[in-house]
Specification:
- The complex is a heterodimer of chains A (265) and B (162).
- Chain A is mainly alpha-helical and 265 residues long.
- Helix content of chain A is 48%, strand content 2%.
- Residues 67-73 of chain A have low confidence and may be disordered.
- In chain B, 40% of the residues are buried.
- In chain B, strand 3 and strand 4 (65-67) form a beta hairpin.
- Chain B has a single domain, classed as Immunoglobulin-like.
- The chains are: A mainly alpha (265), B alpha+beta (162).
Chain lengths: 265, 162
């Protein structure tokens, strides 16, 4: 009987040829994938062979420095808006806020419900109150009255005021069902082809985006004035134009409808 | 063996000719402070002409709009998009072109392309990003190279937001 030839042996021509071919293809593929393509695609922004290999392998790099104009650019806001930006309110913070609140009550009402076309603060989201106070203080949002009033407030003062007003009672917040049935189309659905998201997708009703105020019960003239100011860019403390992009696309009639609807709730 | 070699060849060809969409170099950035300092501050967004004549367009996706809302780009010019997200995952997709990349918070997406002829293109967000996702659209206006130079002339950044 013939002796069986060992498969895994360098003397087996089939074995050496096929393993050699596999290694060859892998080597060529690695050269193409790790060196040729990254060098070619990056239009010479890759610094060298090793950089090309890192690029292809997906090694993270913190962003490349780009030339910035020397003058500091005034952005919309210095506030970092995130789900963690506010601590849960504690009694101490609310108490301090209550002690600071009398300077607000002339316009915003004794219990945070205004009779002077200033925004109602009772039951407002603490993140929204805090962000606006910070923006008034830094000058990203301008108001002759508010600018003067917040000048003396420190960061903790603003957090305390936000905690205090957020805890005051206001009517129940709009529910998704309300939003579906009563609200005008512009409030409920927005206008997709004009990049107008429905108000309810950020301001409560369906979803709340951190930093967005609840709008129900606010004064009609205040809401209209803010939408018009966003539309012209006179007010620009909304991060990445999240409100300017919306208001700019709205017709004057839609602005009226929206302001009237929220004021009437 | 022949098939494997053919597939490697195909992938190389597609990558070199930008038919497929190979990932760009991973670059990381803090999404929470994008608007305060660095490359993606609001005043630095839009199209800018580079010293070598190519155009870089910087875009940020943020629920529920892209900034700038209307991107202005020239024909017959290498265009590099650099984009990222300030909150959740958004999609960056210019209809009728092969520009298609995800905007993941914390990472910068880079995409290079060239536009052949003037056109008004739509740019819908195509990664579900929340309740208002369906309303998240931007527009891309491709204009003749000369027209672009006229509009961009001397300006640091240009867009077609009205």
């Amino acid at each position: 009987m013939m002796e069986t030839e060992r498969v895994f042996s360098l003397r087996n021509v089939w074995f050496t040829a096929s393993v050699g071919a596999v290694i060859g293809i892998a080597a060529v593929a690695a050269l193409i994938g790790f060196i040729w393509i990254p060098l070619e695609q990056s239009n010479k922004t890759v610094a060298g062979l090793w950089d090309a290999i890192c690029t292809a392998a997906g090694v993270p790099e913190s962003f490349r420095q780009v030339q910035q104009s020397a003058a500091p650019i005034a952005g919309p806001s210095n506030v970092i808006v995130s789900a963690q930006m506010m601590k849960p309110a504690d009694g101490l913070s609310i108490g301090r806020g209550a002690a600071l609140a009398p300077q607000c009550t002339m316009c915003h009402g004794v219990r945070g419900m205004s009779h002077a076309d200033a925004p109602n603060l009772a039951g407002q989201h603490d993140a929204a109150i805090y962000k606006q106070l910070r923006d008034f203080k830094s000058g990203h949002r301008t108001s002759a009255i508010m600018g003067a009033l917040v000048a003396g407030l420190g960061d903790q003062d603003m957090r305390d005021l936000a905690a205090y007003f957020a805890g005051l009672p206001r009517g129940p917040e709009a529910t998704a069902a309300d939003a579906r049935h009563e609200a005008p189309v512009i409030v409920r659905n927005g206008s997709p082809m004009r990049n107008i998201a429905g108000c309810t997708s950020c301001h409560g009703g369906i979803d709340i985006k951190t930093g967005s105020p609840r709008l129900d019960g606010e004064s009609e003239s205040y809401l209209r004035a803010q939408l018009l100011a966003f539309a012209t860019g006179a007010r620009h403390n909304d991060i990445y134009g999240q409100m300017r992009n919306v208001a700019r696309q709205m017709t004057p009639e839609e602005i009226d409808t929206t302001a009237r609807f929220f004021a009437g709730r | 063996m022949g098939i494997v070699a053919l597939l490697v060849g195909m992938m190389a060809y597609m990558s070199l000719h930008w038919a497929s969409m190979p990932p760009s170099r991973i670059e990381t950035i803090d999404p929470a402070t994008l608007h305060i300092a660095g490359e993606f501050v609001e005043a630095n967004l839009g199209s800018g002409v580079e010293p070598n004549g190519s155009v870089t367009v910087r875009v940020v996706g943020n629920r529920y709009s892209f900034t700038p809302q209307c991107l202005l780009v020239p024909t017959d010019t290498p265009v590099t998009f650099r984009a990222t997200s300030a909150d959740v995952v958004h999609g960056f997709n210019i209809a009728k072109t092969n520009v298609n990349v995800m905007l993941v918070p914390g990472y910068i997406a880079t995409f290079k392309t060239k536009f052949k002829e003037p056109a008004d293109l739509e740019m819908p967000c195509h990664e579900f990003c929340g309740v208002g996702h369906a309303t998240m659209w931007a527009h891309v206006k491709v204009v003749d190279k000369a027209e672009f130079e006229k509009q961009a002339g001397g300006k640091r950044r240009v867009s077609c937001v009205k």
